[in-house]
Amino acid sequence: MESVVVFVVPFPAQGHLNQLLQFSCLISSYEIPTHFVGFQTHIQQAKSRNLQDMQKIQFHELPTPDFESPPPVQNSTSKFPTHLQPSFEASKQLHEPFSNLLHEFSNKVKRIVVIHDPLMSSVVQDVSSIPNAESYAFNCISAFTQFFSFWEAIGRPFPVEGMPKNLPSMEGCFSSEIMNFMAYQYEFMHYRSGDVFNSCRLIEGTYVDMLNKLEMNANKKQWSIGPILPDLTMVAGKDSRSRYKSLEWLDKQGPKSVLYISLDQRLQ
């Protein structure tokens, strides 16, 4: 009987799926059995990265349900990819097959750890009914953005010393449909045992600590374990340096001249 296995459940969007794939590669590199779960369509997208580290990951390709796949909205006033909303809604259907998978493994291993995107919280909710299982939310956004988004949303419950000035508003960043979807998913977040941030405590430790002060995170563990980035030398069969102008720019900078770069809406 294996002592522990890890199940990873990503949200079916590029920036979310890729981060959890990188995290899965990291976990599996320690010889921990790692299972990556999703619809067949999205698993195939993950495999197309062709990372050598993926060889240690076991993929569970669940049947993709039928859903509308409209083209992108041209000349939209919003930059949010609303045409992907049907696939987001379809992801809720992973709940039953994933629950069956968990119960199957719960009798074979001593401990199950589920790492999931917060937007897949409804899918992993049955973890709470399995005595030897626990779940952790992997947050794809920075701790900085996570904290200030919730702090603002719940009415600034306490003062923040040294609060940055002129923080840009999140208004207009999301469609009403995805806002409703997020609200639904966060109803199931109380089942989690803690949060994992793809960040560095040296840089964002202040905001990780302040997240602990929010009532919604009471008695929840908070970890910053990154930033987790792909090892470009491990991308099989590709010269990664020639693919990204941003990497060429970084290569030209002096030693210790770049502090932190994030593909976040607020932090660079």
From TrEMBL:
GO terms for molecular function: UDP-glycosyltransferase activity. Gene3D superfamilies: Glycogen Phosphorylase B. InterPro entries: Glyco_transf_N. Residues 2-230 form the Glycosyltransferase N-terminal domain. Belongs to the UDP-glycosyltransferase family. This is Zeatin O-glucosyltransferase-like. It comes from Nicotiana tabacum (Common tobacco).
